[in-house]
């Protein structure tokens, strides 16, 4: 009995001091959970820094250039671009500016010297115009996109020379040049009609399609007529540097009229489109007058180019 009482009493005391508590207060449990969450967050969070990270430095060396950065789809901000320009220095900026201004000046000068007037012989024979329209329609049946490359029948002509007239004063000088050419032209024609027979269809680099001028004495006369006009324009100071050779032809279509066709893949006019007309006779054109025409001004009511001045040929 005594041993049993001693054993039992001693066991109770050991259990009270060594065994973990079976009922932990709720507040303590909650606090422990919060501390564990904080510890986990600290492990996951990146180390704090005092400045924004340099994203470019995280890229491989091969991608660390601005060009490579832009290839990835990112663009430099306007402020960054301004900073880069400032880093080049004031002198470098002035050089770039001067070069750009020089380029603009040359471009403007080139544009200001582009031909805007021409001297021509109009096609007035309805037979020739009708035959040209027939060829154009045959081509369009095979390639409708060429419609904008066609030369309208009312504007058909033979170009004798082209020039740039900067103002109305120079237009007046050009009209004077036509008048001064009359005595020389009358002497050249000496009472004989100048008749131009048109035959066959050809091309220049498959970009310009034209009706050709048949061979004969009339070609030599026409070339001399064009030379007289060029000389009179040169005397008025209106034809400096015009050294292009004279190749008489009647243009019926040209791709330069429709530049968008090139982006559509149509860079040439296939000669097969008009192969059945290569030996066709189109008709005779009697040269009745020479016109000074504007390339840019609105066309006349009859569809022909705006005519500043005309020289009626007199066959004595």
Record keyword descriptors for this entry:
single chain; 316 residues; alpha+beta; Cyclic Phosphodiesterase, Chain: A; four-stranded antiparallel β-sheet; elongated; Cyclic_Pdiesterase; AKAP7_isoform_gamma; A-kinase anchor protein 7 isoform gamma; AKAP7-like_phosphoesterase; protein kinase A regulatory subunit binding
Textual characterization of the structure:
By secondary structure, the chain is of the alpha+beta class. It has a domain at 113-312: Alpha-Beta Complex (Cyclic Phosphodiesterase, Chain: A), CATH 3.90.1140. 43% of the residues lie in helices and 16% in strands. It contains 9 helices and 8 strands. Strands 2-1-7-8 form a 4-stranded antiparallel beta sheet, covered by helices on one side. A 4-stranded antiparallel beta sheet has the order 5-4-3-6, covered by helices on one side. The longest helix has 23 residues, at 90-112. The N and C termini lie far apart (169 Å). Residues 1-19 and 51-65 have low confidence and may be disordered. Residues 1-57, 74-113 are annotated as: Disordered. Residues 33-45 have a biased composition (Basic residues).
């Amino acid at each position: 009995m005594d041993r049993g009482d001693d054993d039992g009493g001693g066991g109770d005391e050991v259990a009270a001091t060594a065994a973990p508590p079976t009922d932990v207060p709720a507040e303590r449990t909650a606090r422990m959970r919060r501390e564990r969450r904080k510890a986990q967050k600290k492990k996951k969070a990146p180390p704090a820094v005092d400045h924004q990270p340099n994203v470019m430095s995280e890229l491989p060396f091969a991608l660390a250039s601005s060009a490579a950065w832009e290839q990835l789809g990112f663009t430099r901000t306007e402020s960054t671009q301004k900073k880069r320009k400032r880093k080049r220095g004031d002198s470098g900026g002035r050089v770039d500016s001067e070069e750009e201004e020089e380029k603009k000046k040359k471009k403007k000068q080139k544009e200001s010297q582009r031909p805007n007037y021409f001297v021509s012989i109009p096609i007035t024979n309805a037979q020739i115009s009708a035959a040209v329209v027939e060829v154009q329609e045959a081509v369009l049946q095979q390639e409708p996109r060429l419609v904008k490359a066609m030369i309208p029948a009312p504007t058909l002509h033979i170009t004798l020379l082209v020039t740039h007239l900067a103002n109305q004063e120079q237009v007046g000088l050009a009209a004077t040049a036509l008048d001064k050419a009359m005595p020389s032209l009358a002497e050249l024609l000496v009472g004989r009609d100048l008749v131009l027979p048109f035959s066959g269809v050809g091309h220049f680099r498959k970009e310009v399609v034209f009706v050709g001028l048949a061979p004969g004495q009339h070609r030599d006369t026409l070339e001399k007529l064009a030379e007289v006009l060029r000389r009179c324009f040169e005397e008025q100071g209106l034809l400096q540097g015009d050294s292009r050779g004279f190749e008489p032809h009647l243009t019926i279509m040209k791709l330069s009229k429709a530049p968008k066709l090139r982006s559509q893949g149509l860079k040439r006019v296939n000669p097969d489109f008009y192969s059945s007309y290569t030996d066709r006779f189109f008709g005779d054109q009697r040269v009745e007058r020479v016109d000074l025409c504007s390339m840019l001004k609105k066309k006349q009511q009859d569809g022909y180019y705006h005519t500043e001045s005309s020289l009626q040929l007199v066959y004595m």
